[in-house]
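Aim 2, interim progress: modelling of the S-adenosyl-L-homocysteine-bound target.
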Amino acid sequence: MASAVFLKPGRDKSLLRRHPWVFSNAVARAEGDPRAGDTVDLVNADGRRLGRGAWSPLSQIAVRAWTFDPDEKVDEGFFRERLDRAFELRRAEGLWDPTGACRLVNAESDGLPGVVVDRYAGFVVCQFLSTGAEAWKETIARAIAETIECEGIYERSDAEVRKKEGLEKTVGVLRGVEPPDLVEIREGAYRFLADVREGHKTGFYLDQRDNRLALGDYAAGAETLNCFSYTGAFGVVALASGAARVTNVDSSGPALAVARRHTEINGLDPERIENVEADVFDLLRTYRDSRREFDLIVLDPPKFAESRAQIDRAARGYKDINLLAFKLLRPGGTLFTFSCSGQVSPDLFQKIVAGAALDAGRDARIVRRLAQSGDHPVATSFPEGLYLKGLVCKV
Ligand code: SAH
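Predicted structure of the complex, ligand included:
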């Protein structure tokens, strides 16, 4: 007999809409003494079974549903089927490239809460971010090893969210060999290097793939400022697409060191790329005061809002950098501006950018709306899955 989690009256609505999270304040009681990560039946106040999920006693999200079919077995076969379904989606998106990089499993949105699987050419990098994901780690690694030809499977379960689940950070080889310091990947005509062991996320910003390509359309002849550049991937595309000059700005020295290698391996002229280690907030002010101008500016800051309480502060941050960027643009120039804070809705983000243009005294129009790439799908029942949004504005 499986353990069961009983919901309070009226607290079954989100599960009925196939949203996978059950918050701890919706739980009336747990029966059968489940341990963290165990599969429990989800039962509403009328005694109706609504699905099955992973128990996480320390988290505010007490259960993450694996399935909304109360009779579906959660076993090795279940994970194989879910993984295959996720892989099939990437094949259909044309992203199944053994030399490329791609998110193969996007957690909740692929029906596998807490499980992230990214491919970097010959290496697969996994994150197990919830108690349920942790409990099935071996099963998932085995299934990946049997499905994907790769040199190694590496675990990067070092994200802060593990703490909320009562899990320690864990990194290391799960299968095969340790990845090299930098793994080379292909993205269309470009070559990039991902630091899968120490780099941000699992090594590279895969979610910006489509938006990097879009930048190329605006780069011809453009003096380009790439803010929050990380390893300068946007800068590579801009320069390869005919930008006159590119200035990458990031506060991370190691990221900029990789940016320099990117210039090299893509055969770009190092004279036309400058890598500046600085705080973007400060540097934009310096450029404003010295009346520097650009034709193309990218703003891709880190997540400013981690929780709802931080939305106002985040909004001020976005307003600040967008206002300064609008001031630095030459007439006819283009701003690529992003927010990866899930808490900031596309609507709010557009309002902030509009306010920034107004206060900068610029007449701006949105010509494109951008989002995360197709290998970061958003399940329709899980709108939280949409976090990255971008606007292309012309002034
Ligand atoms: N545009 C990048 C991803 C950017 S992620 C890409 O496409 O690959 C955000 C980056 O902002 C990180 O590299 C981080 O080091 C940098 N960063 C964070 N705060 C910063 C600040 N105040 N000034 C400059 N860089 C900052």
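Residues 200, 205, 208, 228-231, 233-234, 249-252, 255, 279-281, 300-302 surround S-adenosyl-L-homocysteine (CB under 6 Å). Residues 311-328 form the longest helix (18 residues).
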